[in-house]
Amino acid sequence: MDILDTNMILYSAAFGLMLIGIGGIVISNHLIRIIFGIALLEAGANLLLLLSTYHEGASAPIIVNGNMPAMMADPVPQALVLTAIVIGVGILALALSLAIRVQRAYGTLDMREVRLKLEQEISDEAGIGMPSSSDKPADIRKLPFNSVIQQEGGS
Amino acid sequence: MRRFTAALFLLGLGVMIAAIYQHIDFGNTAVNAGQEINAVAAGETGAANFVTSVVLAYRGIDTLLELTILFTAAMIGGMVLGRRRVDAPRDPDAGFILRTGADLLFPLLLVVGMYIILHGHLTPGGGFQGGVILAAAFFVPLLARPGIMLIDQRIVSLVEGLAGAVFIIIGLLAMFEGYEFLTPLYDKGELGALISAGSLPVLYLAVGIKVGSELAGLLAHLAEAEALD
User: Fold this and answer.
1) Tens digit of pLDDT for each residue in B100-148?
2) Considering only the top CATH level, what class is A1-55+73-128?
3) Contact B6 A82 (CB under 8 A)
4) Domain boundaries, chain B
């Protein structure tokens, strides 16, 4: 079966991990889940880099006991991924420390609430009302002529 | 609505990737730089592990810059989390099993980490992997007993700075000898022996200590972050 080829499975895993990671970043609202999405995306990208120079039946590029294997894998992407993994850990720790700050400042990790509180803070600081979309349904939006009508009716 | 558009975006991305998929020649890559490196690396650098040759000899400056990225991440992490208040509440000590396990693991992780760093030019492993294990060695006791000070933070910073300086000084030494920056120096020795490959093991030792102390500092900062009242 051609579709169950090892290469095919590995490439599917790499692309699948990247897709799941991007999906996690795009869909989820929780900050921790977004960070996990970044970690998955990174794993997929690393796997793809390694696969980009994969040869069937190649062994690791290391001489053991003076024997040179006939076919060795490409050491360049391996060296690249080696450093990328460690940097990934550093980036992940940095992202988590930022998440700790967000939790401490806003008391939540839900990005919808954080965004709302952020906008509230900005508009409070600037002394203007909360920004709102003009496409909002009329029953929620406070229309200017409604207040005029109410004032006229009251007087 | 937002979820729907997100799902639509993912579907589009999936279709695009599937389209790229059709054109990949699985297992037969056009990139051949690696095979040429494999052919000449043993003679040029004297390291049995060609990945080490690439990391430290052929693209040593990249490695230096990657260390800089890690340093920046650690520094910003420390800046973002800030200093801990003296009277901030701490988590209680962990249970008996975790505490004993941490005591047992600490020397073991140190030895394994140093082994992996020192054999980086012979076997799979090296400064980055061993450095992470060293960082874990210093982080596990912190998990078992929050607030314990294994090593003064200033000493950790000093060791980290010295390791980075050693890396750059070895690179500069090559320039004084009349080569390019970070060219491998000294006798290549016997292929596969512990003391071989010239200056590469020293470089990897510096990388390992720098990565280890940086990650240990970053993890310690994360663990020290004040809990919410």
Assistant:
1) 988 899 999 999 999 998 888 888 888 888 888 988 888 888 888 877 7
2) mainly alpha
3) no
4) 2-223
The complex's ipTM works out to 0.77
Longest Cα–Cα distance in chain B: 66
What's the pTM? 0.77
Chain A residues touching B73 at Cβ < 8 A: 87, 90-91, 93-94
Contact B131 A5 (CB under 8 A): no
Distance CA B164, CA B116 (A): 19
Q: Is the Cα dihedral B67, B72, B77, B78 positive or negative?
A: positive
